[in-house]
Design brief:
alpha+beta, four-stranded mixed sheet, 5 helices
């Protein structure tokens, strides 16, 4: 909905449809901070400026009032300092916090800040991993979020440097190559 550079990617009429028709059917919504603010403002609610991790709870609560059962506000755009305030200087960036608001609880997921250039697509990858974990069954929403977050973190840590600018995460970090290729394969394994 909102690019890393801040550009709105979805037309206003589509945002209104999303708010009024899709959010009430949503099991989990996973916006970043700019997307959360955009949805809240389009719904006619007040969206405070985020000064600390605790302000993310307010965003999640406002979004949950629009219908989603669970809201995971991703804090990757706003690393925090040792006091959980938005870091003003790059040297103060200590953690990234995501906030999960469930019907009964608020969970803070904290990860060390990683100044890594290859984070393109992390939001989509995270949402897909959460959906996959839920589709497999046997995991609660908080468990699915934690597993997905760990998978994305490993993907960032092992991301190859592809192209110029922000590259993708390593989506295949947990796969191993077969020692013996399948029969008929032309793959040369050393």
């Amino acid at each position: 909905m909102v690019s890393t550079s801040g550009a709105q990617l979805l037309p206003n009429d589509a945002i209104n449809t999303l708010i009024h028709r899709l959010l009430p059917l949503t099991t989990i919504l996973t916006p970043n901070v700019p997307e959360a603010r955009l949805l809240i403002e389009h719904a006619g609610l007040a969206a405070r400026e985020v000064e600390s991790s605790y302000d993310l709870v307010g965003l999640a609560t406002s979004l949950q009032s629009l219908g989603p059962q669970n809201v995971l506000v991703k804090g990757g755009h706003l690393p925090v300092d040792a006091d959980y305030n938005v870091a003003r200087e790059p040297s103060d960036r200590r953690w990234v916090q995501d906030i999960l608001k469930t019907p009964d609880d608020v969970l803070f997921y904290t990860t060390d800040y990683m100044p890594h250039p290859n984070t393109h697509g992390t939001g989509c990858s995270l949402a897909s991993a959460i959906a996959s974990n839920l589709a497999l069954g046997g995991r609660t929403v908080p468990q699915a979020c934690q597993a997905a977050r760990l998978w994305v973190e490993a993907g960032i840590r092992s991301a190859p440097n592809l192209g110029k600018g922000r590259g993708p995460i390593d989506h295949f970090h947990s796969l191993e190559m077969r020692k013996n290729p399948p029969e008929g394969s032309t793959l040369d394994v050393q």
